[in-house]
Amino acid sequence: MVVLGFEHQRRAGDPVRDTRHGVRLGRLDQALAEGLDAGVTAPRRAAARAILQGAIDRGELPAGLDLDLGTDLLIAPLAFRVLVIQGSSDDEYLETLTNAIEAALRAAVR
Questions:
Q1: Distance CA 22, CA 100 (A)
Q2: pLDDT for position 36
Q3: pTM for this prediction
């Protein structure tokens, strides 16, 4: 059902997902997008990837883990909650989120 919701948004012309109009997050200003990538996105993704690779090397995550997807799974849920919906993140929420991400990481195998 969630996937259908995203497909509906894309068909409906959601400006975040619809590239026909040349609009995507971070693409409104090329210099801003490049600065965010170099200063924020790339270093955080590299750190997340290193954490995942360490867990793979220790046998805590499957060897076939898709590192790009795994990186998205580590970063995106909390970033969305904090930056987009400005939701609170108490200890109970963070514990539940950690368990959900752990399960998703184990399933994110190619």
A1: 34
A2: 84
A3: 0.67
